[in-house]
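Please fill in the sequence for the structure shown.

STRUCTURE ENCODING:
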């Protein structure tokens, strides 16, 4: 049994581990980016303000206040240029209603009510007919 365990451990150690390590960095760069602005104010009553900006165009701002039951109500925004050159701007509020982001780059759900495809309506009708048929049959299940 010990031989089997040792053989299994040796096989694992000798196996090609490509694909099992940490993924390579998405943006391989050793260039340091200067921080142009880093203003942080934290008040004794729990209010705070953060304003930061880097030399590569990242801008971040957030302010917050104490909320109910120890929660924090915060709002802010950040912007940067995506690798494809797209300008990304996001504004958000985080409070008792959760995190609520807004930005042109975020996906948007279709307006409701939106048209329901025919195949879905047909499936709903079929299920209703099947339920009606089964309701007339005696139940053979547990009582």
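FILLED IN BY: designer on duty
SEQUENCE:
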């Amino acid at each position: 049994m010990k031989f089997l365990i040792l053989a299994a451990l040796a096989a694992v150690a000798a196996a090609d581990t490509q694909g099992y390590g940490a993924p390579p960095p998405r943006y391989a760069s050793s260039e340091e980016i200067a921080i142009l602005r880093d203003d942080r104010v934290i008040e004794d009553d729990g209010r705070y303000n953060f304003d930061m900006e880097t030399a590569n165009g990242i801008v971040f701002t957030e302010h917050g206040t104490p909320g109910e039951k120890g929660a924090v109500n915060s709002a802010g925004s950040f912007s940067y240029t995506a690798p494809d050159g797209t300008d990304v701007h996001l504004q958000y509020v985080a409070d008792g209603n959760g995190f609520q982001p807004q930005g042109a780059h975020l996906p948007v759900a279709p307006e409701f009510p939106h048209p329901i495809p025919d195949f879905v309506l047909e499936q709903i009708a079929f299920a209703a007919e099947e339920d009606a048929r089964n309701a007339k049959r005696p139940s053979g299940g547990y009582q």
